[in-house]
Amino acid sequence: MSQCASGSQAQPGAPVYFQFDSTTVATFLPFGASIAWLSLLALPIGPVDTAKFCSVEPPATTMSATDWVSLGVPLIGKATGAYSRFADWIQQQAFATYCVCSGTSSGTYAPWILSLGPLWYLKLGSLDGSSHYVDSTGHGWFGVPHGTTDGQTALMSGDPALSTLIPAGSNYVESATASGARWLGNTSASIEWWAKFPAAPAGVVPIYDVYNASNPYVRVDMRASGKVLIDMRDSAGVTITSADSPASVADNAVHQFDLVLNATAHTMTLYIDATLATSCSGLSTNPYSDSGAGHYLGVDPSTGTSTLAHTVGHFSWFPFALSATQISDNKAAAGGTTIYQPPTYTPPPDGTPTGGTPPTCSTSQDVCNQLFLTDQLLLGLSTQLSMFQARERPQFYRVEHVHSGLTGSGVLTVLDILGLRVQLTTVPSTWGSTAETPRRLIPAAGSIQAGISGEYTDNFQLHYEDEVLMLGASWASQVRYNLRPGVVATLTELVPGG
Fold this sequence. Notes:
By secondary structure, this protein is of the alpha+beta class. The protein has helices at 22-28, 50-54, 65-70, 74-80, 82-98, 109-115, 324-333, 364-392, and strands at 8-10, 17-18, 48-49, 99-101, 120-127, 133-135, 142-146, 149-152, 163-166, 172-175, 189-196, 205-212, 215-222, 228-233, 239-241, 254-262, 267-272, 275-281, 294-297, 310-318, 397-406, 409-413, 419-426, 446-452, 455-456, 460-461, 466-470, 478-483, 488-496. The chain is built from 8 helices and 29 strands.
């Protein structure tokens, strides 16, 4: 399934060009591999335009355990398509390294958020006739401003709705109490809001708070460094504080905040810009006793003051735990780029012993796994021996592709090649040659080299008008030809025939 539904682009700072050479590909591999494998992958050769590469998401193919095993047996891997899927896998790693998914166009955020089924969704910044922020879900909840300045610039390209400024002091935005919109230890839930902080506070201040009577139950605080953290207080009166976020958000940039309670895992996690920022674990399974509590942006209701002026918008509550993928999709719908997640490498569960430890064979499935691995290794050995025989002592060779009308210099893409038949169809009449039959052209009319990923062997000089060159380079994925001016040639690939 495609991850970049709205297209993709090069990451900021990505190189203009890159190559799928042996050094680059090695950085993507989860294990050591021979450079000869590159010849079986049919990856792009030479400089790759990063912008062009990033404009098309690679196929969403996956590697099975059998595919990984088959890579060690080239003929089986090629015949079963494992090498083709492996090429996709490498391009997926390159795509994650150099590219990002593009955000959607204007007007897509609100429909997307509503499609997820929030309990309420408030577009802060524009009031109705009752001085409330209207709930876009139609469920009838609303937001109440306290000392805010509405009509501020929209915070995202994915929706034109205006935002609201919360000045420093006793000012905040409050959501109306909603049955079901409460943090409970036995019910998963999430809340998302967008905010821009131009500067860090002088001390610790709340930027989000759920408060009841005299106790805050869930709060996100900002430190003087601009970094944020979570404070939790459950029904047992236990306060749990998370670590600080890795980076400051007081940078005058718009940030997406998602606070997610996972009742099954007993965790509260804060995502910033669709990236996990910090988390609390070990929460009580009991309700957090926040019955009647409202949600506040910008102030601690117990003190009624805030020392941090900032802009907020798009405030929504979900009666379930948003997944990391859903949060990333929310960011994309807002117009922001999102990170492409390539598939991870999972070693095939073949029971292979490591460090001298014998394999586990306590069940019939364990025995089947070992027999399958042994069968594959024996088949691979037989195939490899046949392959070596076909290359070192071939019973015959057969004609593969014919490349005619060649002039000047160029590179041909080849696979599993033994050699070439070289036919010089045109040689200038003034070219020097010997008197023997067939005549030997002096000087050479050109040269041939075998290579892989732009690295080549020593050249084979072309002295005859029709000759067979055995390259001795079955690993080669390229043949480079250099023909003298006025010389035209036909090159016919010769591959193992048995």
